[in-house]
Amino acid sequence: MSYKNFPMVSKVVFGRGSFNQLSEILAPKRLSMNAPFIYIIDDVFKNNQWLTSRIPLAYDDKILFISTEEEPKTSQVDAIVEDIILTTKELPSGIIGIGGGSVLDLAKAVSIMLTNEGEAKDYQGWDLVKHPAIYHVGIPTISGTGAEVSRTTVLIGPEKKLGINSDFTPFDQVILDSELTKDVPKNQWFYTGMDCYIHCIESLKGTYLNTFSETYGNMSLELCKEIFLDNNLTAEESEEKLMMASWHGGMSIAYSQVGVAHAMSYALAYVLGVKHGIGNCIVFDHLEEFYPEGVKLFKAMKEKHNIMLPQGICADLSDADFDKMTTIALNLVPLWENALGKNWKQIITPKKLKELYQKM
Amino acid sequence: MSYKNFPMVSKVVFGRGSFNQLSEILAPKRLSMNAPFIYIIDDVFKNNQWLTSRIPLAYDDKILFISTEEEPKTSQVDAIVEDIILTTKELPSGIIGIGGGSVLDLAKAVSIMLTNEGEAKDYQGWDLVKHPAIYHVGIPTISGTGAEVSRTTVLIGPEKKLGINSDFTPFDQVILDSELTKDVPKNQWFYTGMDCYIHCIESLKGTYLNTFSETYGNMSLELCKEIFLDNNLTAEESEEKLMMASWHGGMSIAYSQVGVAHAMSYALAYVLGVKHGIGNCIVFDHLEEFYPEGVKLFKAMKEKHNIMLPQGICADLSDADFDKMTTIALNLVPLWENALGKNWKQIITPKKLKELYQKM
User: Fold this and answer.
1) CA of B208, closest CA in chain A: separation in Å?
2) Helix, strand, or coil here: A55?
3) N or C: which end of chain B has fewer CB within 10 A?
4) Is the pLDDT of residue B218 over 90?
């Protein structure tokens, strides 16, 4: 038996307003006047002076505003990398991602592809990255994905939705400033928070679970209950706790894996372009069979916050679409094995999976 | 307000038997044939083939067995560093500490002092280290101190017991193999486990607490209760959970601080040479005034495991000794401020502190 050697985020600042420390954190990391810092920022912040006025631009530093209407793609990573290489005099001093899971994953992938040859799609998988990434910083502005702490960056490639999993993927620096999450719209807050909740359930109910992942998962799950069910917190407390729930939920997957909801949601994202947070919710709502208690609590949370999930999103799909979706989902072997054990193929068949999708 | 930028352990393996992976973990870190790995190991393992036969010695690698009868000293660090410099052809490829908090702290301090000039005592304090340490690995063989995850290495110097707190202190690699803790004597298991429990109480009841530290502290505290009070676990489960409790308890102090028990116990160690784990227990047993619920639970745990603490250890002390002890304890300003707030000097006076010591 061999255990994973898990790489952690190198440095982390936590605190309300800690975003103000960005300048002093980056200063010693500037390699030269010609090696800029590149900021990859969710374009919801485009005219947000409150945030952008605190970004310490100097020399050739620049901001790339990124739309997160769609899930991040390998081709998008390649385009950003090409743009950076063509427009900077030297390799950047650092890549700083400011946004949700999509933006953080883009920042991680770009920092890797700046020092590794070829295209991003070549690195989708496990431990394919050869060279250390450029120094990269993650600053979440919404909580739940765990992207701030994970060793992966999940991308849609030409053939699959799969992460670049490597020791070089985790951030060198994370800034956890819950104040940056204060203006997240309620639905998005719920969907992304549920990404964290579902991580916990899939991790804690999985066959891969060990004590390391269990303790992180339990802590994150307790926080999710406090935030989404008990509902006795001030806005600020709730934002701080959700930020930590996301962090611990991400750590919980270090040794375990996600499960049925993520496998099915990945395929929904690939075929229909359904975004990760809401996709997880749509799927998880129908998984009583696999996670009876988890789904019960999820429905209670949904009700408490008056969340109406889209219905019938698979209504117009062709058989070919369903085939594609079930094939993509079933290819995610570790997720099914974690969820259902070694004999998972006897439990979940293409036919059964299609029936599940048809309910959604 | 400025928040700490906390450096984390770079890589961690968790799993029963993961010690077997040491060889493959170290192999890529060997800088040359002349740059050995130096193992600093608790001498309780001196004739323990089960452990030592799995240490992958090659070229000029060597093992230094260290007695942990006494708390680690700055002079001891200097002596080990001098020995390494005189007997190796090049700076070591890595320092590997295998033992409890004392050994882990020695390994951290030695790895720092191999690349920083002067004596270890010069670096007792905060952020005095100039150069990155030699690659260093921590492998705990007893759980509770949190030394495996902290950014300090606590040493007794000629003038004080104080840590070398720096961004270069945390381990580059930690191996958490609970099997290595299976033969810890019961009293030592309890004292060191209580170090963790007391970290949690001091952190959670401190004025420095934030949400980051609170979530880690809560998780660790729950694990301590499960292990030391509920007592429904198998030996293996208990060992695994205590290892994680220690890890999370250590992380909890990242943003908070320890408190009254540690301040008083540091002075006991300095003046009487009382070891850290038992010293904390002796002190904490008398701190109802500061931590009423925490001390109540502590007494219940003590009773459950039939632990008899030494009594009257301060009985023969002179007034000069008491003066020295209270002075040393009261010098630890951040600990008192965390425990009692900004006006701590009005709550704890030298006279009151002496009276507390006299009970012990």
Assistant:
1) 12
2) coil
3) N
4) yes
Among candidate residues B242, B236, B256, B260, the one with its CA nearest the CA of residue B326: B260
Alpha-carbon distance of B93 to B99, in angstroms, equals 20
Q: What is the pLDDT of residues B55-88, one digit of tens each?
A: 999 999 999 999 999 889 999 999 999 999 999 9
> In A, residues 49-108, which contact B (CB 8 Å cutoff)?
none
Give the predicted TM-score (pTM) of the model: 0.96
| b (16+ CB within 10 A) / e for A231-245 | eeeeeeebbbbbbbb
- Give, in degrees to the nearest 5, the angle at Cα A71 between A68 and A77: 90
Q: Is the pLDDT assigned to residue A1 strictly greater than 90?
A: no
What is the rounded CA–CA span in Å between residue B52 and residue B46? 8
For residue B206 the two structure tokens come to 């401190």
For chain B, the C-alpha Rg in angstroms (whole number) is: 20
> Chain B 118-177, CB below 8 Å of chain A: which residues?
167, 173, 176
- What single-letter amino acid sits at B220? S
Question: What residue of A is the nearest CA neighbor of B239?
Answer: A211
Instruction: Select from A223, A221, A228 the least CA-distant residue to A202.
Output: A221
Determine the 3-state secondary structure of A175 from DSSP. Answer: strand
The 10 Å Cβ neighbour count of residue B29 is 14
The pLDDT value recorded for residue B160 is: 83
Q: Which residues pair with B5 in a beta bridge?
A: A13
In the predicted model, is pLDDT for residue A340 greater than 90? Answer: yes
What distances in angstroms separate CA B217 from CA A227, B37, B232, one per listed residue? 18, 35, 22
- Does residue A268 contact residue A354 with C-beta atoms inside 8 Å? no
Q: Which of B6, B176, B211, B222 to mutate to test the interface with A (most CBs of A within 10 A)?
A: B211
- A91 confidence band (pLDDT: 50, 70, 90): very high
- State pLDDT tens for residues A24-39: 999 999 999 999 999 9
Q: Is-contact B41 B107, C-beta < 8 A?
A: no
Instruction: Give the tens place of pLDDT for each residue, B267-315.
Output: 999 899 999 999 999 999 999 999 999 999 999 999 999 999 999 999 8
Write down the H helix ranges in A6-144. 22-26, 49-52, 74-87, 101-113
Q: What is the pLDDT of residue A160?
A: 83
d(CA A170, CA A9): 6
**Nearest-by-Cβ selection for A8 from B12, B237, B255:** B12
Give the per-residue pLDDT at A255: 82
CA B130 from chain centre, in angstroms, equals 23
Within an 8 Å CB–CB cutoff, is residue B323 touching chain A?
no
Contact A138, A174 (CB under 8 A): yes
Helix axes B260-272, B276-284, angle to 10 degrees: 130
pLDDT band (50, 70, 90) for residue A231: confident
